[in-house]
Amino acid sequence: MDNKKTVNMDMKQYGMFLVLIAVYLIFAVMTGGKNMSYANINNLIMQNGYVVILAVGMLLCVLTGNVDLGVGSVVALTGAAAGIIMVDLKGNMWVAIIVALAIGVLCGMFAGFFIAVMHVPPFIVTLATMLMGRGATYTMLKAQTKGPLPTNYNFIGAGFLPTIKIPFGDGTLDLLSIIVAIIFSVVIIFNEIKGINTKKKYGFALNPAWQTIIKDAILIFIIWFVFYRIGRYNGIPFVLVIMGAIVGIYYFITSKTVAGRQIYALGGNRKAAQLSGINTDKVFFWVYTNMGMLAGVAGVVLAARNGSATPKAGDQFEMDAIASCYLGGAAVAGGAGTIMGAVVGAFIMGILNNGMSLFGWSTDIQKIVKGAVLLGAVTVDLMSKRKKS
Q1: pLDDT of residue 103
Q2: How far apart are CA 272 and CA 311, in angstroms?
Q3: Where are the domains of the chain?
Q4: Residue 3 confidence (pLDDT)
Q5: What is the rounded CA–CA span in Å between residue 378 and residue 374?
């Protein structure tokens, strides 16, 4: 085979990064640069950490061609459980976290049982868990806020890694943030070289060099922009470490494991997946159980960030998580989508929320804009598929 043949890069796969930058720059102009401040970059990460966590779990549901409407209520329920244990029962922080995660897993198993065993449509099951979870949260908290939560617990959602401060410009710079940015940059370049060598080895078509260079340059620029700015503030937020670990684990699961390939197969064609020997009921069960667990993680992080457990916690989080997946390129019918796409989609939603708030738009207008953006993203996806067919 001719190793020199080339094929243009799939822009849909990387176009979301350009959209992310474009949306950010638009709001930078509209807000006079307020969204580019060191403190605001930090707020973007900390305020959207739980949305990213939910979007990662939601992607697996979306890949099957379904969604989970109950995650916002599970976030509230698990946060409420942690708050009650620490405030009312004076319990240990780790006990509270374990109980919260266990409740999240049980909620996921509950939904998974009715979907996989009883074959009730996921939309109906998760609509029921949304109502039941919210009602249980109000019952547990008696419509009251539980707080303040212990300082060491708050660190999970509002703390920072230790910093190595050096004088820089008119302030200081965290060396740890710069070291992490260097590591990520090296990993991106190494993986690109490895991928090119693999394609050459098997005679696959390569992307034009200029396209590859621009793609990697954009990714590295985003990394340096973020880590430089948080380095000029308080350093790396602990929630970013949690986020990074979850994204890395699920990227590996979806791209490198049999379980991941089974989810894509189920979403692509359920009957074909069954005929190939995949137990689709089992896949459904673990996907929704996993969603419950990640909702528990998000509940712990949100309560730690707020410093309290409230009955209205997680309100409409399911909508942001679902929108993140579709904005990140996931197919409406299932079977297509990536973890990185869901993460980028989550930050696009976060930048929209943050930018509109800084610009002074009311929450009513914000909902209209977010709804229009979601509708536009899904419409473009469907139109592009119709043209191909």
Answers
A1: 97
A2: 43
A3: 31-159+237-378, 160-236
A4: 45
A5: 6
Q: Which residues pair with 168 in a beta bridge?
A: 171
111: phi then psi, degrees, rounded to nearest 5: -65, -45
Domain 31-159+237-378: give its CATH code: 1.10.3470
8 Å CB contact between 259 and 70: no
Low-confidence ranges of the chain (pLDDT < 70): 1-4, 10-13, 385, 387-389
Q: How many CB atoms lie within 10 A of CB 213?
A: 12
Which residue's entry shows tokens 């806020």?
Answer: 145
